[in-house]
Specification:
Elements lengths: L7 E9 L2 H11 L2 E6 L2 E5 L8 E5 L3 E8 L3 H8 L8 E2 L7 E6 L5 E6 L8 H4 L31 E11 L2 H12 L2 E7 L6 E7 L7 E2 L3 E5 L8 E9 L2 H13 L3 E9 L5 E6 L5 E6 L3 E2 L6 E3 L1 H5 L1 E3 L14
Parallel strand pairs: 1-4, 5-8, 9-13, 10-19, 14-17
Antiparallel strand pairs: 1-5, 2-3, 3-4, 6-7, 7-8, 9-14, 10-11, 11-13, 12-18, 15-16, 15-20, 16-17
The chain binds fe (ii) ion.
């Protein structure tokens, strides 16, 4: 198998009947419109990604995810494999090229290269410094200055952080994503007394370069009544204030809260999960672990994976078939 190693996740793709309704939610969640063309809505965050979310008009469905390749040669490589299409030019904002294919569960996988980055406002992406207290000037990053975080406002999204899918067999899917896109496991969640994996938290293989603890979560569809599809989409925000500010805005607007605010064990990030008007789960998160490709895989329990270091218990609806 002559696959590639993707650099990161690029965008998620859903399909909904009312793009205006979804755009309102995504705006309140912290995104802005990049373009609306050919019945397709492209939304960006505050980071350099031209867009981080794509919604096409149609019957409610989850379509798939796109990942960044490092070069056009990588797209050429994939296009030679049976699982992927020929290279196509993108007519969406920022241009570029893509190949597309289907994973073992029929979930669409796009790999893109050459999409121009958007200009960013560095000030917007720079966290307001925090004072740590105690003694010693080095503990104080904000001296003779007040901290004002701009309430009320939506979260500032740095990038699409990671995404999760529910699948028939996480082992089979990991093999596929490893062979085609280079994903490697960080944490494997075992079902006790079986050789079944409940979930695999997988990361990009960037060699010595750092990458997120998980860019892709591959979870068993046993929790979604055997239905494969979306588990959740996660967006990295600037800092913890952004998680809480976003929470207040979404609550005020009457959106359905799913789970949070808390701090996960696997990935260590502070999380907050919401449902879109179409039931898909969207996460705000910050302060995630980062690893290079030397970190050894670990095996862990469902309790740890579904638990949190602090925060409310996981809901019994998280990851269910409503969101797929
Ligand atoms: Fe997540």
């Amino acid at each position: 198998m002559d696959g590639i190693k993707v650099r990161d996740i690029a965008f998620s793709i859903v399909q909904v009947p009312d793009l205006e309704l979804l755009e309102k939610f995504l705006f309140d969640f912290g995104m802005s419109r990049a373009a609306l063309e050919n019945d397709t809505l492209y939304m960006h965050g505050a980071g350099s990604q031209q867009y981080i979310h794509v919604a096409q008009k149609g019957e409610r469905a989850f379509i798939g995810h796109a990942f960044y390749a490092d070069s056009i040669k990588d797209l050429e490589k994939l296009s030679k494999l049976e699982s992927f299409s020929d290279i196509e030019e993108l007519s969406s904002p920022g241009g570029g090229n893509k190949v597309s294919g289907l994973d073992p569960d029929g979930i669409e996988v796009q790999v893109v290269y050459g999409i121009e980055e958007r200009e960013v406002d560095i000030d917007l992406l720079t966290p307001n410094p925090s004072n740590l207290g105690g003694k010693g000037k080095e503990n104080f990053k904000r001296i003779n200055k007040t901290k004002r975080v701009g309430k009320p406002r939506s979260s500032v999204i740095k990038k699409l952080g990671h995404a999760g899918i529910n699948v028939t067999d996480p082992k089979v899917s990991l093999t596929w994503y490893n062979q085609h896109l280079g994903f490697i496991p960080t944490d494997i969640v075992e079902v006790p007394n079986t050789d079944i994996y409940a979930a695999i938290f997988a990361r990009c293989d960037l060699g010595d370069e750092l990458t997120d603890h998980h860019t892709f979560l591959i979870q068993s569809n046993l929790g979604s009544e055997g239905k494969s599809g979306l588990n959740h989409i996660s967006f990295e925000v600037v800092d913890i204030d952004d998680v809480f500010l976003g929470h207040e805005v979404l609550k005020e607007k009457g959106y359905r809260h799913e789970w949070g605010i808390g701090r996960h064990f696997l990935g260590s990030q502070i999380f907050d999960y919401w449902r879109s008007p179409y039931g898909h789960i969207y996460e705000h998160m910050t302060d995630s672990d980062v690893f290079d490709n030397k970190k050894e895989v670990e095996k862990t329990s469902i309790e740890i994976a579904a638990g949190m270091q602090w925060g409310p218990d996981i809901t019994n609806t998280f990851g269910n078939k409503e969101g797929v």
